[in-house]
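PT: before anyone asks, these are the final sequences, not the draft ones from last week. 223 residues across everything. Please model them as a single complex and drop the result in this thread when it's through.
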Amino acid sequence: KQEVTQIPAALSVPEGENLVLNCSFTDSAIYNLQWFRQDPGKGLTSLLLIQSSQREQTSGRLNASLDKSSGRSTLYIAASQPGDSATYLCAVRADTGFQKLVFGTGTRLLVSP
Amino acid sequence: DGGITQSPKYLFRKEGQNVTLSCEQNLNHDAMYWYRQDPGQGLRLIYYSQIVNDFQKGDIAEGYSVSREKKESFPLTVTSAQKNPTAFYLCASRQGNVLTFGAGSRLTVL
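LR: through. Structure below.
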């Protein structure tokens, strides 16, 4: 059974810092991995999607990497801003059968001005 | 604008009552999902539907029921059989790799 873990559970940084969020998964047979952002009391917004054949994806100040063989992904946020404060979740999709996503527990990020 | 609308945003239920959470999408997506989110836990799949008039149980379907009579609508009923229903419920729809979430409904059992 696929399990997804995110470390750290919470992170507090001053504005302007570069930071890395980690996601690990137990079964490397994945189709893709997604990073989502969730603001308090709101739904999820997709940030980046990495296909299993890809090593990384970039969008603005965000860069996500994927090492399928070791079961790890990282989300790098450059020059963090207070508006980046949110919970970040990663989710993996299996490469067979129904397209179910297995979610991690999330990292709660606080960027202080 | 296209999107997913969940209602109500907040709902209070007495023990023993059934309640229904609404999920409507105008994205013309075929697949729809219901997830439950508890503090400190990831999202867990309750039910999903890949096409109208068809739906499947997810990982935690006990105490819940759904219907998919229209492509746009996928309501979730939380029945009295669900022993711990207080949670944040998220509806999503998907086309290809694009997964779109609603804003969620928070259910509290009094």
